[in-house]
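User: Working on a comparison across species. This one is Cation-translocating P-type ATPase from Streptomyces kaempferi. Can you predict its structure so I can line it up against the others?
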Amino acid sequence: MTHIDAGAELDPVHPVPLPAPGRAKGLSAAEVAERVARGEVNDVPVRSSRSLGEIVRANVFTRFNAIIGVLWLIMLSVAPFQDSLFGYVIIANTGIGIIQEWRAKKTLDSLAVIGEAKPTVRRDGVAAEVSTSRIVLGDVIEIGPGDKIVVDGACVEADGLEIDESLLTGEADPVVKRRGDAVMSGSFVVAGGGAFTATKVGREAYAAQLAEEASRFTLVHSELRSGISTILKYVTWMMVPTATGLVISQLVVKQHGFKDSVARTVGGIVPMVPEGLVLLTSVAFAIGVIRLGRKQCLVQELPAIEGLARIDTVCLDKTGTLTEGGMDVTELRPLGGADESYVRKVLGALGESDPRPNPSLQAIIDAYPDSEDWRCVESLPFSSARKYSGATFNEGNGESGTWLLGAPDVLLPAGDPALAETDRLNEEGLRVLLLARATGDLDDPDVKKGARPTALVVLEQRLRPDAADILRYFAEQDVRAKVLSGDNAVSVGAVAGKLGLSGAVVDARRLPDEREEMAKSLDKGTVFGRVTPRQKRDMVGALQSRGHTVAMTGDGVNDVLALKDADIGVSMGSGSEATRAVAQIVLLNNSFSTLPSVVAEGRRVIGNITRVATLFLVKTVYSVLLAVLVVCWRVEYPFLPRHLTLLSTLTIGIPAFFLALAPNTERARPHFVRRVMRYSIPSGVIAAIATFVTYLVARHHYTGPDQLNAETSAATLTLFLISMWVLAIIARPYTWWRVALVASMGLAFVVVLIVPWLQHFFALKLVGVEMPWIAVGISVVAAAVLEVLWRWVDRRIPA
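Assistant: Here's the predicted structure for Cation-translocating P-type ATPase from Streptomyces kaempferi:
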């Protein structure tokens, strides 16, 4: 039973009673144990990746594995072992996929635990951090700016508390919360502080119910994955009628032995399936996650690796991204004859009035100790929308006063003499705050009106040592950097200038509201100051409206909306929990220098998969066309499964694995399907025609009982040489290891041709001298046509 104090108030909405006004002590250890025993624990599993069972099912139970599996079972019953090798290759590839994704899962899970924020829970009157899964029903949870609401609850303390529920409701305006108001999990604090009592935990919480519908680990919104799915769909449509025609041709029309006809039919169907392409893509993504995980980079959605590689614009928040979180007070300038010692007392009291100071206020706290005889009567926490904070004090001598601390250009009217000095300091890259004495009450919306400037507080920001190198990297990669900051535009421009970022500096308050006009201004400018949280979101949308792929970096709660709307959101590990929750990529080591690694990893994955996809699809095209030609000419299918297993292994399987994991810095380009098919279709057509021509010539050249085996060997030689030339083209630009890779594949085929037991195993034996040289000649002509065709495609069919 829940203990109810005599003075407790019952909230009409929630079943858990609110404590009496004052500081809530929270549950006792005995009450926590009692709730744990009843199962009233926030036991929602954190799913950063698929379970082992889901990984196995996803890799094993695929459409193409089913097709290959059935054909494999048929071959095991009607043909020699070597004609069933393709089935063992599928088992090996699927096993590799499962192992790699399992390794990626462990990496993700371990990093997710490192990056998980721990809410502050008050128990027995003592506040301590606990993991989200240890929260129980009735716990009192403290919250402040940037904190995410992890369970549903009712507010028991509120000090200027403003909560953004946009991730749940879509409404961007913060909601002011007072004692007794409900708070929903999934929302986050933008200003003020307070505490709430947990009224719904586990799967009953609102955010948990939403999360049941989707896992963090997802492969959606990936052009690469959707493009491959589109290709496979078309392949399936082509494969069914072609395979049907092949079955009828080999089993009915030719009326050869049943087992031989079945073997050659299966030999025609199996290479149509580009099963390794899907698997290799998954492996490449998984290895990318592991590589980035070693650099303390948490990829919360796999397509983020691909997405960041496609960006052409990166929006950077200055604080926490270009500059480190800490600041130092370098100077205090009293205004209007104010007494400096008194100003120091005011600043010390202001620092003490905020339990969760931002970096600027923390620097003031470090510089000016609190005056113990001053008592805070009312406080107004800092808000990035307001650009100032404030407090009312009893000064211990009977006097009281209301003070504001914030941006000078927000608190002062245009033309005020203090602004000229502020501008000069901003031009040096220094940050300036104004201390002003207000004449009205803090709860007055116009409290800043008529405020008397008392002092300027000059702060110096600490530049990140890696920021200049990162901005240089983006410039070299043709990625435009835009700095969006809530600070003074001149000051931000000076900081950007120190880091080597040139371009127009714009005060965001002068930006047009209309999206198209805003987009034009964004294209012209580089540094934008005095940007509100809503403006950041609008600016991301304006850039996207002009076709830009936008990444947004940030660590503050004011960045959340923009991070959520950007194509790729990147958060620092030390940032607020709200930013980490909506970002696709979290830099756990807080190092901006990790970002180029993510871009490079994405480019490696996309560029290499595009390369190897061409290899796989050339095989699919020539397999389908060869089957059609065989049906039309009503001849035996020239290959057994063992021949195409050998060709696929040497010209596709082994090379594709190495090429997919090789370094690649080429910028990712859109239209994946078009770019792959513009090479695959003509190459596959040339390979099929050249091979079939060799086969027809061989049919007229050879006679006798071993005629078909000789014809098959000649056709296999032609197809291998053309496939090797396709591989040689795709392996460009050449490096020593790429040349070695291509050469070793060719050498392996020569070994098969000259070693007697391998000749027998693969049923490959070149008969005579004339026909093999004819096959080589046809291959040379086809290779020349391939070279001309690829150059023509590059010029006439742009990607």
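For your comparison, note: The chain has a mean pLDDT of 82.

User: Helpful, thanks.
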